[in-house]
Amino acid sequence: MKLLAVFLFVLLTFRAHGSEAISVVVPASQSIHDTRYTDLMELLTVALDKTTARFGAYSLSEAPFVMSEARYIVELRRKDSVVNVIWSSTSKDKEADFIPIRIPLRKGLLGYRISLIAKDSQSKFDNLKTLDDLRGLTVGQGLGWGDVALYEKNGFHVITASSYDGLFKMLVQRRFDHFPRGINEVFPEYKTRRDDLPYLAIEQQTLIYYPWSYYFFVSRYAPELAQRIEVGLTLMIADKSFDEIFFKHHGKAIKDARLTERRTFLLDNPFLPTETPLENKALWYDPLGLMSHYQYN
């Protein structure tokens, strides 16, 4: 009887543990106007949904307080971190500190950059011909963003701000010349701020490009969650739901960007780890064939 009681206790405990929903916590939005991560939340949700039968129930929520990207990267290193999944550009340090899911979110679209500028600054861009010409203009970026080191490595003078919303105000105050944004970001950011910042404008002539791997990163203390997300995203690529979400969120921006009509400036990205899957063309959006210029691996 005692052995039977012990067996039943262990069985019930296992079932209770197995049915416990895993808690997935991501960074909170930095602003009421911050629409940058709507698509990533949908990707993550669908990936978790598609793996429920294998991995069990889950809950998905935002962190209880707002953190800059620099802060939530530091936070994820802690064993008792309030977040266990973040999104960020990759680097050797991040891939050493966290578990990278090496499936480029947005298919590398963040590497295509169109700048926000002050409305009367378009003439600074109209006659740019060389990369050195472009380097003569100052760049605005967020403190802790991975792009900062990339622009500096490519010879640009970068001015940073700790506040995401503050960057737009600094731009129209002429604190820097332009604020390069992913083509998926620039149009909604302009639309939500043009009434409050009437001197804000979208630059019309240039396109900046560099290979940009933007991943989900998972706490190294949550390997099963990392496996689950990777399995879910792989299933989504196979059944085309990954591409469906990509074009649903970014198809109009791709059209509005007029990529073939802009002068393209290629930047180097020396910070890509050797494990970056540049050779897997199915993972990337490359309508201009720009990735053929990059041979990092």
The profile of the biggest β sheet is: 5 strands, mixed
Overall average residue pLDDT: 91
Helices and strands, in order, run as: HEHHEHEHEEHHEHEHEHEEEHHE
Considering DSSP H and I runs of 4 or more, what fraction of the residues is helical?
Answer: 25-40%
Radius of gyration based on Cα positions: 21 Å
How much strand content do the residues show? 15-25%
Q: What is the CA–CA distance across the termini? A: 63 Å
Spans of at least 5 consecutive residues whose pLDDT stays below 50 are 1-17
- Overall structural class, as computed from helix and strand content, comes to alpha/beta
What overall form do the CA principal axes indicate?
Answer: globular
Give the tally of β-strands. Answer: 12
Task: Count helical runs.
Answer: 12
Give a topology summary.
Elements: H1 2-18, E1 22-26, H2 38-50, H3 52-55, E2 58-62, H4 69-76, E3 85-89, H5 92-97, E4 99-101, E5 112-118, H6 123-126, H7 131-135, E6 139-142, H8 146-153, E7 158-161, H9 164-172, E8 179-182, H10 183-193, E9 200-202, E10 206-209, E11 214-218, H11 223-238, H12 241-257, E12 263-266
